[in-house]
Design brief:
The structure is a homodimer.
Chain A (H helix, E strand, L loop, with lengths): L2 H22 L2 H21 L12 H12 L9 H4 L2 H29 L8 H9 L3 H34 L2 H16 L18 H16 L1 H10 L8 H25 L11 H18 L11 H13 L12 H16 L4 E3 L2 E3 L1 H29 L4 H11 L8 H4 L2 H26 L18
Antiparallel strand pairs in A: 1-2
The complex binds potassium ion (K) (2 copies).
Chain lengths: ~450, ~450
């Protein structure tokens, strides 16, 4: 074995062992710390003079915000990514997106492994044992799978985007760099753009738009779903309940979002009103895909009607699939609550879907996630209204976008004073890492009290 | 026995028998029909020429809206109650409030009886049997208790208000009529006013303001709580879980609402900024009490800061106590969801409070009520934005106020075209009768499926 391979192998073993140790103690708390450390690292990198286009150190609040936005794969930014940062700075941001995306997928998949049977860890109990007794092989192979899966997906997207962007830009190096940037930004649902005028320059190019859509859509399904789709393809009967629910709700919301967007904006001259019918349809689908959590926008959201922004709020809040780079409360959380409602309305003792009972515990975890999310958004909206003196609409939109790490913007982020940027930074962190680790903590919880009180029934409603 | 008494007694028997028959079949559906019929009756009364000040028939949409608002004890109105209606019309409205309030308390208490042990119907099962086998005596005595309780409370309020209003108005008859009107409006949490300029004329009178506050507060606790407080007073150990939770959350929200209102509006010249310190405090408490569901306002809500309106939105949505004339999702629903969150965060198997386990079923009913409420509010807000072209703030405020039958207004109701009035009418009906009967249907459900599917665990969050 050559020396290089041995060194790589040893480094790999060290990483596997470190991850094993971390997951063994308190995985959620460690995840919080790791994410905070990674954000601190990327903030300090962006603070370097060579990171900006002017060669001067950026403002701390801008660097912190952009680092948080990159690592949490949100895409909100108080500064123009193309103009404010040097190429080096942009590479730092792209690295932040990649590291953040991989970190989220890995951690979330570890959690997912403990609740689904499709990652080689057969039951929830076995999964816990597997992690807590340090079966490093499985954790290691999970990380490997995540990395390979991400790199392959990003490579495919880049291979489509690069030739097209070379033609559009008329510059091989620029096309190459932009293709890689957008491929990574899309698959990780990051929504960062490095054209000074956003996607306006490519907004008539169906190849670019559809590639971004596919990248965002695939990325937003979540790792457990992707792995299962890879294994079983369209043998729907072999799909897990989680995969079925994710695919159903994602498809439903995609259609609902696109149809409503088209209906409400069809003749709106500030948005898609002046486009051809084909472009109107294409842009409606694009807008709907990006509400999931993609965060790319061809049309400025603040130009849309208030009713469109309200629908966008609702769809952003739900977000994408669990253990994906999409944020929000997640489509399966929505599904579990909707199914609980349905079961109540029908008078069924248990809520169920596709011949599977959904445990009451899952409903309670779901409710907790939604309650936490709603509280974060409420507090942030309140803070932004007080800070900016704006009325409800834009602070709410921006808060939901940050919480759901979506990255669509009403333009408010660019106008915020430092205090407002800190609020949204905290919300991106809480929305991304907080919700994920909170759900993780609840799901892989080991200690449960054994005694029960007698029942008491308050009146509901 | 004199003939009059016999006739009364027979009429009473007939009513008892009718109620028994209705509750035996499908109580929730019957409640919907009865409320719709009562609203239709009061709409047609208001359509009479003698109901208006001008002696001409009012617009149908105005009559329908005001009848719905009165019977659902909301208090929103597209027309000025003092100026648009004749004395006869105002009496119709007041009768609508009284009938609606009694109907809500009776029906809601029937439901409450099936989940608490404090109305002589010992267990949930016994309660169902009691109703379904037609034990009319208990239903009859419940109605009697509700009526007596309401009339006594309203009489006490009127006795305080009448002398004071006679002095303020300088007119015995006016003072008498206004005292009775405000007493009924306050205890039933209706929020209707019959001063042309709202409460502005009495807004410096602490006796009137505090009497309204006490009336609204007592009315918003709910009948089961009132009955239990009457029986056990402040022997808190004897209180039911429901009473404890209701008192705790109500007090908490009262304090939070008042403190936040004071902090946010203290120096706001359009609202309380020009008042004396004492008046500022008094008005902050008043505003907070009315967010529960009272709907009286001294300061126009639309003049408040956006952050105050947002907090008002949140507190209105939660509303008051179960089986009360207050609306919203109810404070115990909030408590159940908060306790579920707390239990999850602490890793407890069951959520519990005051030494009582809260059944998972209660959490699911609570979630269903919240999901239904949020959906209603979302759809109504969307419709109002489309109808009016307004941005988010006022349509959301008005929708939540209608859903929670609160009656605070951003001024939008007065500006709405007929289509908008129909939307809010539907929302008041759905928010009041829909939520109540939905929760009732869930709670007293008899048929539950017996089989269970194997468990499936989607990933949450
Ligand atoms: K994003
Ligand atoms: K009211």
């Amino acid at each position: 074995m050559p020396q290089g391979d041995a060194a790589t192998s040893t480094a790999w073993e060290t990483i596997k062992r470190a991850v094993g140790r971390l997951t063994r103690s308190s995985p959620p708390r460690m995840a919080l710390l790791i994410f905070a450390a990674v954000i601190a690292l990327f903030t300090s990198l962006l603070m370097m003079p060579w990171s900006t286009a002017t060669g001067e150190s950026p403002e701390f609040h801008d660097a912190l915000f952009v680092a948080t936005s990159a690592v949490s794969v949100t895409g909100l930014s108080p500064v123009n990514t193309a103009e404010h940062w040097s190429l080096a700075g942009q590479i730092v941001i792209l690295t932040g997106i990649q590291v953040g995306g991989l970190g989220i997928l890995t951690l979330a998949s570890l959690v997912a492994a403990s609740v689904t049977h499709h990652l080689g860890l057969r039951t929830r109990l076995v999964a816990q044992e597997g992690i807590s007794t340090g079966k490093l092989g499985e954790v290691g192979s999970l990380i490997k799978t995540v990395v390979i899966c991400s790199v392959v997906a990003e490579a495919v997207l880049a291979l489509v985007l690069i030739p097209r962007l070379i033609i559009i830009e008329g510059d091989i190096l620029r096309g190459f760099w932009h293709g890689i940037f957008y491929a990574i930004s899309a698959f990780n649902n990051a929504g960062f753009v490095i054209h000074a005028d956003g996607l306006a320059g490519v907004n008539h190019d169906p190849i670019v738009l559809w590639t971004l859509m596919v990248g965002v859509f695939v990325g937003s399904l979540g790792f457990p779903v992707l792995l299962l789709l890879w294994r079983y393809r369209w043998h729907i009967k072999s799909w897990s309940l989680h995969t079925k629910l994710t695919m159903e709700i994602t498809t439903l919301f995609l259609v609902v979002g696109a149809v409503l967007y088209a209906i409400l904006e069809w003749n709106h001259l500030d948005t898609i009103g002046t486009m051809t019918t084909g472009e109107k349809i294409q842009n409606s689908i694009f807008a709907s895909v990006m509400m999931r959590s993609g965060g790319f926008s061809v049309v400025e959201n603040v130009m849309e009607h208030s009713e469109t922004m309200l629908i966008t709020n609702a769809l952003m809040f739900v977000g994408g699939g669990s253990a994906s780079t999409a944020g929000g409360i997640k489509v399966t959380t929505f599904a579990v609550i909707f199914l609980a409602f349905l079961a109540e309305a029908r008078g069924h003792e248990d809520s169920s879907a596709h011949g599977r009972t959904i445990p009451a515990q899952a409903v309670r975890v779901g409710v907790s996630v939604v309650a936490m999310g709603a509280t974060f958004v409420l507090l942030s909206t309140l803070a932004l209204i007080i800070i900016t003196g704006e009325d409800l609409e834009r602070p709410l939109f921006e808060s939901i976008s940050a919480f759901a790490t979506c990255g669509l913007t009403s333009g408010l982020t660019e106008e915020l004073p430092p205090s407002g940027l800190y609020v949204l930074s905290a919300l991106m962190f809480a929305g991304r890492v907080g919700i994920m680790t909170f759900a993780a903590a609840l799901t892989i919880r080991q200690s449960r009290i054994r005694y029960r009180y007698p029942e008491g029934r308050p009146i509901i409603g």
